[in-house]
Design brief:
This protein is mostly helical. The chain has one domain: Hypothetical protein af1432, CATH 1.10.3210. Helix content is 65%, strand content 0%. It is built from 10 helices and no strands. The longest helix is centred in the last third of the chain and has 27 residues. The relative contact order is 0.14. The model has no long low-confidence stretch (mean pLDDT 92).
Length: 195
């Protein structure tokens, strides 16, 4: 039986630090970020189902979120200001991500490849309905990082916080409004204040 390196490669997410251009009081790695995005994506879909009458798969959203940045194991973390600097760079990076996804999927046993291609590349209609929730969760994770840094007195994240808040608002998702109103304020509190 041929060995697969896929899961060992995924375990290296913990070595990929995010926010490389920023002065961080605490570094954040890709594993931590992916877990948080998974938790928040699940919450956003739950909000959609419970408050807005949707019938979406929250567990699938969490799964897609866990793998949403998995290609960065191969590409590394490209800072957002660079990734979206202009349409040409954005398109080139998208092509790099697709090649990285293919490379990652190639590490799997043949009978796993189709399943993971659907997860990593998000290519089914159901998953395309979940993609905005994963994107919103990704933004909320970035916002929470900004909040954490600013709570530690790091003003370096002030502009990133403002830009991320604007990006969340521009998504026009009522689920984001609910998360921001009901869940986000606790992130500003100390541990003792959260009881």
């Amino acid at each position: 039986m041929k060995q697969s390196h896929f899961y060992a490669k995924l375990s290296r997410m913990k070595y990929i630090n995010r926010w490389g251009l920023m002065n961080n009081t605490k570094s954040e790695n890709l594993s931590e970020h992916s877990l948080e995005v998974g938790i928040i994506a699940h919450c956003l879909v739950m909000i959609s189902n419970k408050r807005f009458g949707s019938n979406l798969n929250a567990e699938r959203a969490a799964l897609l979120a866990l793998f949403h940045d998995s290609t960065e194991i191969i590409t590394g973390d490209m800072p957002t200001p660079i990734k979206y600097f202009n349409p040409e760079i954005k398109q080139a990076y998208k092509e790099i991500e697709n090649k990285a996804a293919d490379r990652l999927i190639s590490l799997l046993p043949d009978d796993f490849k189709e399943d993971f291609e659907a997860i990593i590349k998000i290519n089914s209609d159901e998953d395309k309905n979940l993609a905005p929730f994963v994107k919103a969760a990704d933004k909320f994770s970035a916002l929470i990082k900004c909040i954490d840094e600013m709570r530690m007195g790091n003003d370096e994240f002030r502009k990133a916080k403002e830009a991320t808040e604007a990006a969340i608002r521009s998504m026009n998702m009522p689920e984001c409004d609910v998360f921001e109103r009901e869940f986000l304020p606790s992130y500003y509190l100390s541990l003792d204040e959260q009881d």
